[in-house]
């Protein structure tokens, strides 16, 4: 799936540095613009080989940013998904919950009433309410308090913030005992031109911070490789595929996830070949059911970050709702509030037992079973399985499920 990349000839309408996977056809969308085909999870399928393995014998563990994970799942740094308590719960289940340092937990001493108001707001009142709620300033003391609360539970402490505030927050992140910091924005780039505003010197920040720095989000080989070269602990891949995100509609920006992951994996593999340093790739967004997680890892990801599937947990702070991180923007809100409902405990969603037949629960079990079926003993083996382009994979033979809104079509 494009793990090896080559630079294509410079052609009319093609951006400088344009790269395409070996064997990819460069196509025209018109006389003056060239393009290539990109693929999402719904367009690919995983192919079993000559070996199968008992699912109980497979190893789903990975190590990212010096954190050992029994399950390769990060909980997205979104207020409807991760609170200090759910971060601790997910950590004990083998994953990592990432707390949003610019969310309600660092703006309000007791955010319960705020979360209730978000859940109860009408569609018309929702965006103005969110803008008002998130206009409350972040309190440095609350950052330290929340991190120490998470630390006291014995689970990994990982937090997220945007590049604009990373330097300001770093002392509090360190004082709170964080294990890693994720610097995350809609689109991250190594170079930035601006006539105003604060810009983070990312290479200097990564070099001087005394804890692992993970960075996202990107969707290209070039940016992934540049980030890896400056020593980041992991690269997060995905722009706009999240269930609540509307950036693709508002901005028109993004690359389907299967291709985005494969391009970043190509950068990871090339960087490892040249330097001997392995930088994990985390697929962020666009995964709703267990099969999506399996496909992301088969495309080469080391782990995934998910939001809406965990927002369905009984313990999730969103009260059955899930909302985008860019919704509170005072200038250009980008993120819907979705009613996702509640389907079971966080434990059931991560490791079962499942009470649904649509793949929305027991993600660890789904990954173990898929790995066993594909003959993959480890995550590294899973990254090597055959992937085929299969546009009919979700529709072939599923007429009754679709007509009756059952199974895959609930």
User: Tell me, what is the CATH class of the largest domain?
Assistant: Alpha Beta
General form: globular
Helical content class: 25-40%
Overall pLDDT level? 89
Give the CATH H-level superfamily of the largest domain. Answer: Aldolase class I
Strand content: 15-25%
| Total beta-strand segments | 18
Number of helices: 15
Number of domains: 2
In angstroms, what separates the terminal alpha carbons? 30 Å
Give the SSE map:
Elements lengths: L4 E3 L11 E3 L5 E4 L2 E3 L8 E4 L14 E3 L2 E3 L3 E3 L8 H9 L3 E5 L11 H9 L2 H11 L6 H13 L5 E4 L4 H10 L4 E5 L17 H7 L4 E6 L2 H9 L4 E4 L9 H5 L5 H19 L5 E4 L5 H9 L4 E4 L1 H4 L9 E3 L13 E3 L6 H6 L11 H12 L4 H4 L3 E4 L9 H6 L6
Parallel strand pairs: 8-9, 8-15, 9-10, 10-11, 11-12, 12-13, 13-14, 14-15
Antiparallel strand pairs: 1-2, 3-4, 5-18, 6-7, 16-17
């Amino acid at each position: 799936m494009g793990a090896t990349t080559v630079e294509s000839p410079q052609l009319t309408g093609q951006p400088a540095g344009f790269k395409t996977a070996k064997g990819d056809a460069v196509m025209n969308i018109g006389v003056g613009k060239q393009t290539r085909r990109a693929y999402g999870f719904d367009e690919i399928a995983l192919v079993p080989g000559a070996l199968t393995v008992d699912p109980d014998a497979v190893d789903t563990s990975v190590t990212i940013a010096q954190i050992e994970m029994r399950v390769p799942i990060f909980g997205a740094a979104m207020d409807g998904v991760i609170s200090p308590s759910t971060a601790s719960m997910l950590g004990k289940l083998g994953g990592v919950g990432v707390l949003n340092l610019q969310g309600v937990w660092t703006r309000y001493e007791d955010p319960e009433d705020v979360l209730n108001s978000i859940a109860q707001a009408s569609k018309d009142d929702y965006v103005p309410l969110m803008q008002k709620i998130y206009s409350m300033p972040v309190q440095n003391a609350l950052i330290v308090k929340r991190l120490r609360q998470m630390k006291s539970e014995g689970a990994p402490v990982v937090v997220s913030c945007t590049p604009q505030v990373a330097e300001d927050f770093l002392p509090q992140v360190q004082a709170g005992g964080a294990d890693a910091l994720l610097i995350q924005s809609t689109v991250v780039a190594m170079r930035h031109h601006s006539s105003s505003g604060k810009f983070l010197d990312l290479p200097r920040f990564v070099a001087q911070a005394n804890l692992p720095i993970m960075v996202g989000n990107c969707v290209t080989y070039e940016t992934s490789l540049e980030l890896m070269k400056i020593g980041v602990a992991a690269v997060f891949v995905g722009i706009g595929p999240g269930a609540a995100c509307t950036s693709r509609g508002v901005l028109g920006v993004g690359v389907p996830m299967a291709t985005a992951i494969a391009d970043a994996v190509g950068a990871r593999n090339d960087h490892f070949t040249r330097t001997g340093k392995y930088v994990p790739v985390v697929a962020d967004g666009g995964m709703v059911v267990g099969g999506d997680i399996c496909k992301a890892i088969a495309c080469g990801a080391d782990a995934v970050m998910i939001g809406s599937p965990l927002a369905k947990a009984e313990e999730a702070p969103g009260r059955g709702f899930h909302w985008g991180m860019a919704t509170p923007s005072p200038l250009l809100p980008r993120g819907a509030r979705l009613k996702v409902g509640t389907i079971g405990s966080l434990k059931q969603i991560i490791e079962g037992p499942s009470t649904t037949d649509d793949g929305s629960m027991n993600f660890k079990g789904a990954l173990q079973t898929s790995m066993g079926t594909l003959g993959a003993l480890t995550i590294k083996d899973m990254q090597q399985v055959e992937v085929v382009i299969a546009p009919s994979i979700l529709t072939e033979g599923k007429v009754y499920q679709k007509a009756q809104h059952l199974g895959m079509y609930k």
